[in-house]
Specification:
- The longest helix has 19 residues.
- Helices cover 38% and strands 13% of the residues.
- It is globular.
- Helix 3 crosses helix 4, helix 3 crosses helix 9 and helix 8 packs parallel to helix 9.
- It has a 4-stranded mixed β-sheet with strand order 5-6-7-8. Strands 1-2 form a two-stranded antiparallel ribbon. The protein has a two-stranded antiparallel ribbon with strand order 3-4.
- It has one domain.
- Strand 7 and strand 8 form a beta hairpin.
- The protein has 240 residues and is of the alpha+beta class.
- The chain contains 9 helices and 8 strands.
């Protein structure tokens, strides 16, 4: 680990290894310190103007536009859910549709693989971003069976658009969140704090959030975004 102010941040790890131990400031209910720890990970020139507002202020301005764009992309063929009526339901739906607006990620295949690259399915891309489970899910068993190396969001509830509990999952750790907005915000910041790569299955979702919402043009992942990310960015910027 290396020190950043009052925080000890883990060094970068290889994707095939276990995640480094979470900083004590996170595991001892110090979730309010995540923004400060996050700022230690990004170039200094980004930490003053763009991060003061954060996702909580920016995202609500884009919700209706993202849902409008998603309808044009016929997201309903992949995500069947009830109609979003309240502001909270629309906000949650705007996150759930993201994996269906971009192509699933791909990763270089193994030597024994017939294909040079292996592409995820849209369902795999969605699950690596936000997993949905019913209330009553055995969380200890869920954590034991978790095979995702990078952080992701877990939403518990019998209604897709209004989960009763939201967590960020980091291997065997659960970090409680008030809603999906906070869950996505904390998940993104944890990816930076732990200095891990974006989950490859939904890498374009995080690339969009990174460059469009957090304005980190030189962040993780691809130097240049796939066309679908650029199209959505341009659509939002032209409508604002």
């Amino acid at each position: 680990m290396h020190s950043c102010g009052n925080f000890d941040l883990p060094q970068k790890y290889h994707i095939d290894n276990k995640l480094p131990q979470l900083p004590a400031d996170v595991t001892t209910q110090g979730y309010g310190k995540l923004p400060q720890m996050f700022m230690c990970r990004v170039p200094h020139r980004y930490t003053t103007r763009h991060f003061r507002k954060g996702l909580f202020v920016k995202w609500p301005k884009y919700i209706d536009l993202i849902l409008k764009y998603a309808e044009k992309q016929n997201f309903e063929q992949h995500l069947r859910c009830e109609e979003a009526k309240t502001d909270a339901e629309k906000c949650n739906l705007s996150f759930l549709v993201l994996p269906f607006l971009f192509p699933p990620g791909q990763i270089r295949g193994s030597k024994s693989s017939k294909s040079r690259y292996v592409r995820a399915t849209v369902q795999e891309a969605s699950a690596s971003f936000i997993q949905r489970r019913e209330i009553g899910t055995n969380i200890p068993q869920f954590l034991e069976e978790n095979r995702h190396a990078q952080p992701f969001v877990l939403a518990l509830g019998n209604r897709m658009l209004l989960p009763e509990q939201v967590f960020v999952i980091v291997e065997q750790c659960t970090i409680p969140c008030s809603d999906l907005l906070q869950g996505v915000d904390r998940c993104f910041k944890l990816i930076y704090i732990l200095d891990v790569e974006f989950p490859w299955e939904c890498q374009h979702v995080w690339d969009f959030l990174q460059k469009c919402m957090f304005k980190l043009g030189e962040g993780k992942g691809r130097d240049s975004s796939v066309p679908a990310v650029t199209l959505l960015r341009n659509f939002l910027e032209n409508q604002m």
